[in-house]
Specification:
By secondary structure, this protein is α/β, with parallel strands linked by helices. It has one domain: 3-Layer(aba) Sandwich (Arginase, Chain A), CATH 3.40.800.10. Helices cover about 40% and strands about 15% of the residues. Helix 10 links the parallel strand 7 and strand 8. Helix 10 runs parallel beside helix 11. The longest helix is centred in the last third of the chain and has 26 residues. The model has no long low-confidence stretch (mean pLDDT about 95). Bound molecules: manganese (II) ion (MN).
Length: about 300
Amino acid sequence: MAGLIDLYRVRGPLFAGIDSRRERTRYSVVGAPLDATASYRKGQRWAPRSIREASENIESNGYYARELTIEEAGVYDEGDIALPHGDASEAVRRIAGVVGEIASEGRVPVVLGGEHTVTLGSLEGLARAGVRPCVLVLDAHLDLRSEYMGEEVSHATVMRRVLERVHPEMLVYIGPRAYDREEVSIASSRSGVEVIYAWEVERVGPVNAGSRARNLLGDCSEVYISIDMDVYDPAYAPGVGTPEPPGLRSREVFRILMEIVDHRVVGIDLVEVTPHYDCGSVTSVLAAKTLQEVILLAESSRRSRSRRPS
Ligand SMILES: [Mn+2]
């Protein structure tokens, strides 16, 4: 029977409800509550809390990754980064500072957005720690505009800035279906940028789409995964900043992740959940389950590798 003091203790929400000792964990969940440049629906700043709450109330096993539970995988919740409202560039600097510190400890940052702009800070932080991964983006959009509504650092330009400022060896997209002509021409002309469009996933199926992405990332020793929740069909994830039907089904995304996610994961972000436009928290719940699956797939792969005799 718990003492009375335990009954009064209220903390959280913490990611997956795990109150772990940091030194026994490898994954650092950190919230980046930014919605400075959201052009349609705002409120992504409320997402970290909403995703944490959902994550406390789903079961701790993976869908494909069934060997480990999220408690066993080793996750520590660092809390949220204090970000200014309305200054995306300063927010990116602060995110880079925090993520850089986490990565320099050899830990894997798991960034809860916030709008997609947070990915720039996260990748700049990793680079500062000497980690230069290939980048896999699941997104309805290419986010390759040079500027958007007069802003150079924005959710609609974030991958263009990543190409210019971080120079990943490979940038692979899965799920795009919304873009302008300039973005498509950049995506098709730059070496090291590959796109598996949503209709290609539909045509070849998630297993083949996933294995194509895995081949494209075959030479990468480190991989960063950015999941924009609008990659899902709005029927599965209505609470996002810029919904784009028709999109991927939840089981398709999970099957794709199973094909790709392995021990090479050095950083993860999940962005664009917009709780006030969500219905019954379905987007936050799917976001929490998606993150859990990515962590479990990465950690299971890492442990099975370290068990293997060399
Ligand atoms: Mn998007």
